[in-house]
Design a protein that fits this description.
By secondary structure, the protein is mostly beta strands. The protein is built from one helix and eight strands, in the order ββββββββα. Strands 1-2-3-4-5-6-7-8 form an eight-stranded antiparallel beta sheet. A hairpin with a 2-residue loop joins β6 and β7.
Length: 122
């Protein structure tokens, strides 16, 4: 499992090693990946692109990141066609809590204005 942090370096989620599913810190399924984009597990709505291990909002600004991959913004992505819903994955075991990373530099274009829970709830 790959740890995902917000701009304040708080652990907010886990991305499975195959980068197919996103889970919250209690290992509840939040989103699935299809076509390089994240889709809400609850609603099927498009959340934004996934660039490496950086979660971007619909404006191309980072909402979550992994320290091993760095953090960067992108240009506003085109809205993709709606993805087919993924099957609910098995609930993974909770990984050990990772060490808090150093605060990353502010990415060009800045961070998302959304909170992580707000982004997930779209």
């Amino acid at each position: 499992m790959i740890s995902v942090f917000d701009q304040n370096t708080d652990l907010v989620a886990w991305l499975d090693n195959g980068a197919r599913h996103l889970f919250d810190t209690d290992m509840n399924w939040l989103a699935y990946v299809s076509g390089g984009h994240l889709w809400s597990a609850a609603t099927g709505n498009w959340l934004g692109p996934l660039r490496g291990t950086t979660l971007l909002d619909q404006a191309g600004r980072p909402i979550g990141w992994h320290p091993g991959d760095g953090v960067a913004s992108s240009t506003r992505p085109a809205r993709p066609a709606r993805a087919a819903r993924a099957a609910r994955p098995a609930r993974p075991a909770r990984p050990a809590r990772p060490a808090r990373p150093a605060r990353p530099p502010i990415p060009a274009g800045g961070w998302s204005t959304m909170t992580f829970p707000g982004w997930c709830g779209q």
